[in-house]
Amino acid sequence: MKPFLKAFLFFLIIIPLQAQQAEEYVWHDPLTTVDQFEGQGWKNIGYNRLPEKAEAMVREPLWNLSRNAAGLVIRFTSNSDNFAIEYTVKGRFGMNHMPPTGVSGVDLYIKNKKEWLWCRGRYQFKDTISYNFKIDRASKNEREYQLFLPLYNTVKDLRIGVPKNSRITFHPKSKKKPIVVYGTSIAQGACASRPGMAWTNILSRRLNEPVINLGFSGNGRLEKEMIELLTEIDASVYILDCLPNLSPNAKRTKEEIQRRIVNSVILLREKHKKTPILLVQHAGYSDGLVDTERAKVYGALNSWITQAYNQLKANGKLNIYMLTKEEIALTNDAFVDGTHPTDLGMQQYAEAYEKIIKHIHVQ
Q: Where in the chain is the domain with CATH 2.60.120.260?
């Protein structure tokens, strides 16, 4: 190998590695200063979504899913342009139809006036997952950041490193009343390519409002125990988006599903007299146009929820709204597997929710 080529390779490979190794970080644990993160309805629950008392209230599968960090956000300000993030997870990194970056990854956004800008990071998925963000900033003024946590995994031992002599300040949840979402795997985040693309997180950024994600994969079933937990949160809007987990069967008849819808609204209204409640129709399956049996499922569910909604309105349950399948308007290519949305589908969900929530807020 020619001498000049050896020298070139040395500077190309060795020097950057030495610079990276020489970077000295000071590591910070957000849990030592924050007792309730954005996206949480209760204090002192770590990187989880339900309080410890809920373990004795809800079914085991739902409880286990509540350990996933979907919708949780670490808010902070810093004058640094360099962040290292390390953590471990309890479950598998990815799934057949959802990448590790969505299941187990994190997403960093920086505030630019009223807009949140995504920051590209280098990442490694090993025993300890690591992300490194280098942000090109002209000044060393304090800037505001949001770090979205994994959608489908349990987070442990998370720490954030900044270069020595840099400042970082972690912030508790916003004082604004949150939008509370109770739903299914779609609400939890399946199958977004990264946490920031879950529709609940897109909606939070667009409205600049906190959103609490209580979506549970396969387990959003309008159960009384979960509704009781929801009543403990002082929300700006309650969203009930559970129909994809309520497909009819021998036990879940039309009467049973409508009973769950009506009873959920009544229980919420008993504790929160005026808070808006948004019922959501099934958004459909992308193969519904070529599979009549699949189309019958969401067609029946949407008919039944419409009847329940009209019954509630007729009985004087005011400040109740409904988001329809037509308003969600998922396109044929907005799905991964015919059921769960891609990032495109997540954007379409978020746009529909943004429109109706803005309407609700001005009523």
A: 25-171
